[in-house]
Design goal:
One of its GO terms (cellular component) is cytosol. It contains ten helices and three strands; from the N terminus they run H-H-H-H-H-H-H-H-H-E-E-E-H. It is mainly α and about 230 residues long.
Length: about 230
């Protein structure tokens, strides 16, 4: 069976940069990222200039190579399958019933079938305005926001007053509206150096900020300097 190569993520490239700055070997970096040494070696050879690896430049090169357009979601509002689902919703079928019906109609065509969870996402996430109100009105429970399924009340290890990522607005989740960012902090070997990452969710634009330590002040100062 042919092996599938998966490109490094932005965060992984930041780890590569910090560990290279710390004079770590290719095998050490590969072990830290649970990647093969050949993958790391190929990344360094392809994107390093004069022996220096720059995560920003590496990410830019990777983006330039990705010439294929992003695949639309299965239930995109302009798609035929979405219109089939919409028709059955207007007949007051539940997403579960629609999913079973599609599977019965086209059992051997994965492009024509979706799960009920995908249908719920298509109702609550992708549409806007009147279309969204129409689809929600077709549900038996007309909730404007879908509640996540309960997994019990055990709150051990939770941070008091923590804001869960699951309650962020739908426009952030579906990456349609620019201006929403995700942040992360990556530490090098033995915590000798750190890199903060900010990724704009719609465009994939990345900002990296090197810092000497991971204190709150250092993180704020480093991001302020590059923004």
């Amino acid at each position: 069976m042919a092996r599938i190569y998966k490109h490094l993520t932005t965060q992984e490239r930041a780890v590569v940069m910090t560990m290279r700055d710390d004079q770590c070997s290719t095998r050490s970096i590969a072990k830290r990222l649970c990647r093969s040494a050949s993958t790391i070696s190929r990344e360094l050879k392809r994107t390093s200039g004069v022996g220096v690896y720059d995560a920003d430049a590496a990410h830019a090169q990777c983006q330039a190579r990705r010439v294929l357009p992003r695949r639309l979601p299965k239930l995109h509002p302009d798609g035929v399958l979405f219109q089939v689902v919409r028709h059955h919703l207007n007949l007051f079928w539940s997403p579960q019933q629609i999913a079973r019906k599609l599977k019965a109609l086209w059992p051997d065509d994965p492009t024509a079938t979706v799960s009920h969870e995908t249908i719920y996402n298509a109702i609550y996430v992708h549409p806007r305005g009147e279309l969204k109100r129409e689809l929600i009105a077709c549900l038996r429970h007309h909730n404007q926001v879908r509640k996540p399924r309960s997994r019990g009340t055990d709150r051990r290890g939770q941070i008091p007053d923590m804001q869960s990522i699951h309650i962020r607005p739908a426009e952030v989740e579906d990456r349609l509206i620019p201006g929403h960012w995700e942040g992360d902090l990556i530490k090098g070997a033995a915590n000798r150096s750190s890199v903060g990452t900010l990724v704009e969710r719609t465009t994939g634009f990345v900002v990296l900020a090197k810092m000497d330590n991971a204190t709150t002040k250092a993180v704020i100062d480093s991001f302020s300097a590059v923004l």
